[in-house]
Amino acid sequence: MLKLKSIIFSRIGPRTDVKKMTRKGLIKSGLIYLIAGIIFFTIYVIVFTASSPTRNLRQDEVSATALLIMIISMLISMMGIVGGIYLLIRALLRRT
Known about the structure:
This protein is an all-alpha fold. The chain contains 3 helices and no strands.
């Protein structure tokens, strides 16, 4: 039980408790979120261009797997980008 608790509450990844974070921590977490968003947006673009050999993209030309990957990567990229922008704005408005 102790090992599971330490895995759940480990410090892997960006912190998101904004009220208790310092300006430096907000900037660091915001940049991590932005980088993750850009990586997932890149995955979206790669899958989009690979699944559409022609310029006119119709619904019947895209496979279901490619469409699923594009939807998931776009959602995660938008969450990362919006979260990163939010954390950076909070860092700019933080006094200390």
